[in-house]
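Translate sequence into structure tokens.
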Amino acid sequence: MKTIIANQVRTFCALGAQQTVAAIDGAVPILYAARTCTYRLHQGMSECNGHQGSGNLGGSSVICTGMHNIPVPNNNTTDTLINAIQTAIKITDAELYVVLSGCIPELIGEDTGAIVARYRSQGFPLVYAEMAGFRGNAYSGHEWVTKAIVKQYVTSPARVNPRLVNLWASVPYLDPFWSGNLNALKYLLEQLGLQVNVMFGVYSSPGSWRKIPSAAVNLIVSSWVGLDVAQYLKSKFDTPYLHYPVLPIGAGETSKFLRWITDKLHLDRLKTSVLIAGQEKEFYDYLKRMAEFLVKYRRDFPERFFMIADSTYVSSVSRFLINEIGLLPGCQYVIDDPPKCHQAGIIRQFEADVGIVPEVVFIDDLFGIKGEIEKKLDGRVPLILGSSWDADMAGDLGGYYLGISSPLTERLVLNHTYVGYDGALRLLEDIYGKALEQCG
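Result follows.
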């Protein structure tokens, strides 16, 4: 039996799904869990991850039963949830309430669904999801609560809008750039003449969720998160889905993404070609400006990059840095624990579309990773793309560090993104700005 010591927590637990609910404008999370758990998750996934704020009734404002011990099941434990639900309904005027049960209610066998059903029968818009931390990490929790809302809240539409696309991408808050990513993807799709329905962030609402069945297609832009939801939506509403396994970063990948969408949805190819031509001209004009800087031989510039991030970022950023910038890849460490059925597909993405195929490691214990990277440097100056946990390691190895993964304590992230043509330029500015700052 393998023993894993919790070291440098990056993926949190399933109850992190509270942040998914907090990302829906107009939805209210109700936590049937320990207040310590809920606040620590807020700190880890928001405060210490880009300082993203509390969201919609999250953080210290979250409505929580405050279970701190494992009691013997009785009316008093049930009453704490009933009181929390009644309080939420009394003090808020929400279109959607989501009850999330943590470890304690599940360990003592509480029937959360029965309590929620009592209020649903009275016409209150409540749904529930079992989110015990021992069930999985926050990536899985996001999938489960999303699916629960779809199952219990979303009904069939009167008609389908052939121009409407449901967009599913980054995990809210856990990915510090989730809001900017959704905005950038929405903008790209709208340039093709599509209407985009976004379930999280600035443009979201419970109404966005009710519109889900009206879409002609569900678009998943992620290595694996969202696929289970898309497959469920296909079975429930017969809505087809498209899966693009990487975030489009840079001219090459973004143009490929736009052409792919155009072909799949039978859009105007000429319009897409004109759009791409204009965007690529601008992108490569800026890239030419820094060409001298990029090819200039400086021994203190990063020569080999290592990533410690989730599978979507590892594959997306690596493609751009290898294929368009020509950086040499070191080992790429995947930390989001993708289901076994998706791991081979993630590896194939590197083998098929990356100029130099890097070593990819799925890892759940980062103890000793510094020594592993040191062995693979080959005397080159490293660039570490990871989380705040990795900053000191980069300095010890004589290299550079850029935070792109949770937790991210040293950056304020509002709508920053590396998606698209402009996003890739921001990534280059961030990487080489760090290098210039550190090497003088």
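Note: The longest strand covers residues 161-168.
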